[in-house]
Amino acid sequence: MAELSETLRAEIRRYQDLVEKLRLIATNRQQIQLQLAEINEALRELSGVDDSAPVYKVAGSIIVAKKKNDVVNELNNLKESLEIRIKSLERQEELLKDQLKELERKLAKKLGGASQVERAAR
Hints:
Blueprint: H1 6-47, E1 55-59, E2 62-66, H2 68-111, H3 114-121
Antiparallel strand pairs: 1-2
Helix pairs in contact: 1-2, 2-3
């Protein structure tokens, strides 16, 4: 990379940064999707439980008895919050992918091909 101009090196560093941000956002989105799946499973289980049956919830290092409706409401609120967060992360992913494509196109033009971009980014 010594023969590359400072501007080109900065663009390559930006490309690497965008790739890393995209990876982190994708990882975060996957973790939230797992939480959402757990909440959906809990809601499915609770749907088969009688309203008068005791329901227990983990709160830190203890387990607390709560009303079923209270737990269902808490889970639904958390579910809604996580769904919003997932949509936000998906939008961020799309924006980053678009930025990466554009930057990759510019770098490929300057370096003479997409494989050169990947090699220079290492």
